[in-house]
Amino acid sequence: MRVFLSYSQDDQREHTHFRKNLMALQSDGYITFWDDPNIKPDMEWRAEIDRELEAMDVFIGLLTTNFRTSKFVQRVEFKRAIERREERAAKMWLILVDDCRIAGTTYEGIQVLKPGGKPVSKHKSLRAGFDVAEKELHQLMIGLWQKQREPDLLSQSDV
């Protein structure tokens, strides 16, 4: 599965911590992920982002106050992720990092992960909170894999 990681540039610390969790999932063979550090100086950054938004199977957003107020995240990344979700072309999971309001926002109908039942920022450390988030994402990904494999398994049983 291709994962697109979205975050506000103002959340570099949170991104750095969580990126390691995605690297672990990638090392274990569950995902390949893309985030903006993959943009090289000779690349057209906007075209690269657009290409990855079209290729993603899963959009993961680090839901913080900065994420909610970033014009680029909202107008480009989140907007396209919503469209792809409505087209049933991609899943969308948001990880609640800050203890921000969900009710009455555009995030209300989206699966928001509260690792261990609380925002990442309420754990003893960011590392601890993101480690719990990784475990929960792992379970969601296994569920997606099983759903994707069901048609293959059904067609094999016909043979």
Structure description:
The protein has helices at residues 12-27, 45-55, 65-69, 71-86, 126-157; strands at residues 2-6, 32-34, 58-63, 91-96, 111-113. The chain is α/β, with parallel strands linked by helices and 159 residues long. It has a single domain (2-157), classed as Rossmann fold, CATH 3.40.50.10140. α1 runs parallel beside α5 (126-157). The chain is globular, with a radius of gyration of 16 Å. The chain starts with a strand and ends with a helix.
What's a quick, concise take on this entry?
The chain has a 5-stranded parallel β-sheet with strand order 2-1-3-4-5, with helices on both faces. The protein has 5 helices and 5 strands. Helices cover 50% and strands 14% of the residues.
Radius of gyration, in Å, reads 16 Å
- Give the uncertain stretches in residue-range form: none
What is the domain total for the residues?
1
What structural class do the secondary elements suggest?
alpha/beta
Q: Strand-residue fraction?
A: 5-15%
Termini Cα gap:
27 Å
Please tell me the CATH architecture by its name. Answer: 3-Layer(aba) Sandwich
- Helix percent reads 40-55%
What is the string of helix and strand elements?
A: EHEHEHHEEH
For CATH, the homologous superfamily is named as Toll/interleukin-1 receptor homology (TIR) domain
Individual helix count: 5
> Strand arrangement, largest sheet?
2-1-3-4-5
| Nearest-integer average pLDDT | 92
Number of strands: 5
CATH topology: Rossmann fold
Which overall shape is indicated by the principal axes computed on the Cα atoms?
Answer: globular
